[in-house]
Design a protein that fits this description.
The structure holds two protein chains of two kinds. By secondary structure, chain A is mainly α. Chain A has a single domain, classed as DhaL domain (Serine Threonine Protein Phosphatase 5, Tetratricopeptide repeat), CATH 1.25.40.340. Helix content of chain A is 70%, strand content 0%. In chain A, helix 1 (5-21) packs antiparallel against helix 3, helix 2 (23-33) crosses helix 3 (38-56) and helix 7 (131-146) runs antiparallel to helix 8. The mean pLDDT of chain A is 94. Chain B is of the alpha/beta class. Chain B folds into two domains: 10-184, Rossmann fold; 185-311, Hypothetical Protein Tm841, Chain: A,domain 3 (2-Layer Sandwich). Chain B contains eight helices and 15 strands. In chain B, strand 11 (254-261), helix 7 (267-283) and strand 12 (287-294) form a beta-alpha-beta unit. In chain B, helix 2 packs across helix 3 (108-123) and helix 6 crosses helix 7. Chain B is globular and about 50 Å long. Chain B starts with 10 loop residues before the first helix and ends with a strand. Classes of the chains: A mainly alpha, B alpha/beta. Chain A binds chain B through residues 27, 31, 34-37, 40-41, 44, 73-83, 120-121, 175-179, 181-184, 186, and chain B through 54, 76-85, 107-109, 112-113, 115-116, 138-139, 141, 144-146, 149, 197, 199-200, 202, 204-205, 217, 219-224. Chain A: One of its GO terms (biological process) is glycerol catabolic process. Chain A: It comes from Pseudarthrobacter sulfonivorans. Chain A: Pfam families: Dak2.
């Protein structure tokens, strides 16, 4: 398996599919502790990404992610737009103009995405935000890449599994950042919608490489 | 869900289009990217004022575009902040060279998108100042939350900073007036019913017939806690006490009292709340010098209200009284 621009386009296409399929679920998660718009915004944003990809036909994975970043920033709104936009932009910068991505660079890109989200949103681990999916994902990706036998698929699977576990682990947490923080103790018992959509995005990356 | 809409996905487009038609003498509506500017923008030599946020709070913000208030309003999707690709052109459109003040309600999405737009505008050579509105006393523990939200006080910041810009104040002076209003206003709200976001189709939170939510924001999000329904005076006391204590209002002070409807409560009920709030303030020895009662910053069709108290000084009173001509507020012209 090589991670080239075709993989990147497949990944983003699967992201759009996942957001459309999970639109109602994400709205329901957000309804419980936020304001019921996350599924709608992510669906709208990734549909716009698909249109842009068809128009622009990027030549490298980095270029595809940069286009995604700019589109999400301009179409999603809310906190998710700038946060995901920054994540994809930082990942794109980490990939540079490489035509194919090796395991080490892939892990670097995931770490850069996580760092971008932290820098923009100023949330820490345990605040019940998408950081709780991205930090374990970035760390698992680094560990998988450091293993000499690590493959790009192995890095992606490790990241997706860690993100999914991280998203589930937000359920008992009390939110300290974002819209859910206004609920205080009442935010416990619900999965964070941003962590949930992050896990969907990282799972789509595996699907595109499988 | 019964709503006067054609398609949940075109609610904001069609509503803003209608707003532009209804107030063609006051505003210009740009459709894509979407923003509303004052008809005569940019006004030569004047500091521009731009605000924006999710839709669903009408008349905020587009209803406050015009003489003596905002130069531009940037509507996002329902309850979703607008994006930098809307905020930036709105900012550029109202910049006369004197700089632009962004008035931003303290919600994570609004802050992040306005922050990004401000960086881009500065890169294009426009001086930007940001006034962050965070008047909501319902958020008690700002250390462990995203901080106090910008709610009812936003209307007062927009009116008073708008008057300062209209009289020719500098960029820094307009921002300083905005900050001064923000630091002297506090607000607390209550919901008697939830609202339904058109694309979600179901109410934004669950509330039994005999329950109310105390300490709500303006995006249909639940508040601090649910309590059993009470009468108007009881609810008014619950909202006003924390507002007055947090503001530290003492005898002899002058205030502006703003009772705001959330969209689904009749004016007659808002005046019942106003009546009690005015009594309580008088009992504390303070004087209500100015008042505002009505639906100005709403949450779709939510039933409920918010109470804001602004500590006035002579300058703020003078700026409040200054002429304003917008779709939702008009006096002196």
């Amino acid at each position: 398996m090589v991670l080239d621009v075709k993989w990147a386009v497949r990944w983003l296409t699967l992201c759009a599919q996942a957001m459309a399929e999970n639109r109602v679920w994400l709205i329901e998660l957000d309804r419980a502790i936020g304001d019921s718009d996350h599924g709608e915004n992510m669906d709208r944003g990734f549909q716009a990404v698909l249109e842009k990809l068809a128009e622009a036909q990027p030549e490298t994975p980095g270029a595809a992610l940069k286009l995604t970043a700019m589109t999400l920033m301009s179409k999603v709104g809310g906190a998710a737009g700038p946060l995901y936009g920054t994540a994809f932009l930082r990942a794109s910068t980490a990939l540079g103009d490489a035509a194919e991505i090796d395991p080490g660079r892939l892990a670097d890109a995931l770490v850069a995405a996580r760092d971008g989200i932290v820098a923009r949103g100023k949330a820490e681990s345990g605040d019940k935000t998408m950081v709780d999916a991205w930090t374990p994902a970035a760390e698992a990706a680094q560990a998988a890449a450091a293993d000499g036998a690590g493959t790009v698929l192995g890095v992606l699977v490790a990241a997706a599994e860690a993100a999914e576990a991280g998203a589930v682990a937000t359920e008992p947490l009390v939110a300290r950042k974002g819209r859910a923080s206004y609920l205080g103790e009442r935010s416990a018992g619900h999965r964070d919608p941003g962590a949930a959509s992050s896990a969907l995005i990282l799972r789509a990356a595996v699907g595109a490489a499988a | 869900m019964k709503k006067l809409i054609n398609d949940p996905r075109s609610v904001v487009d069609e509503s803003v289009e209608g707003f532009g038609l209804a107030h063609a003498g006051l505003v210009t509506v740009t459709a894509d990217p979407k923003y509303v500017t004052r008809k005569d923008a940019p006004v030569a030599g004047k500091v521009g004022l731009v605000s924006g946020g999710g839709s669903g709070h009408e008349p905020l913000h587009a209803g406050f575009v015009g003489l003596g208030m905002l130069d531009a309003a940037v509507p996002g999707a329902v309850f979703t902040s607008p994006t930098p690709d809307q905020i930036l052109p709105a900012t550029l459109a109202v910049n006369s060279g004197a700089g632009v003040v962004h008035i931003v309600k303290n919600y994570t999405g609004d802050v992040l998108n306005f922050e990004t737009a401000a960086e881009l505008a500065q890169a294009e050579g426009v001086d930007i100042r940001t006034v962050l509105v965070n008047d909501d006393v319902a958020v008690e523990d700002s250390l462990y939350t995203a901080g106090r939200r910008g709610v009812g006080g936003t209307v007062l910041v927009e009116k008073i900073a708008g008057a300062a810009a209209e009289r020719g104040d500098s960029l820094d002076a307009v921002a300083a007036i905005g900050d001064r209003v923000n630091s002297n206003v506090r607000t607390m709200g209550v919901a008697l019913s939830a609202c339904t976001v058109p694309h979600a189709g179901t109410p934004s939170f669950d509330l039994a017939d005999d329950e109310i939510e105390i300490g709500i924001g303006i995006h249909g999000e639940p508040g601090r806690h649910k309590i059993p329904m009470e009468n108007a005076d009881g609810i008014t006391d619950r909202l006003l006490d924390p507002v007055l204590s947090d503001l530290g209002i003492t005898g002899g002070e002058k205030v502006l009292l703003f009772v705001n409807g959330m969209g689904g409560t009749p004016l007659s009920e808002l005046y019942i709340v106003y009546r009690r709030a005015a009594q309580v303030i008088a009992e504390r020895g303070a004087a209500v010098e100015r008042s505002l009662v009505g639906n100005y910053i709403t949450s779709l069709e939510m039933q409920g209200c918010s109470i804001s108290v602004l500590r006035l000084d002579d300058e703020l009173t003078h700026l409040w009284d200054a002429p304003v001509h917008t779709a939702a507020l008009r006096w002196g012209v």
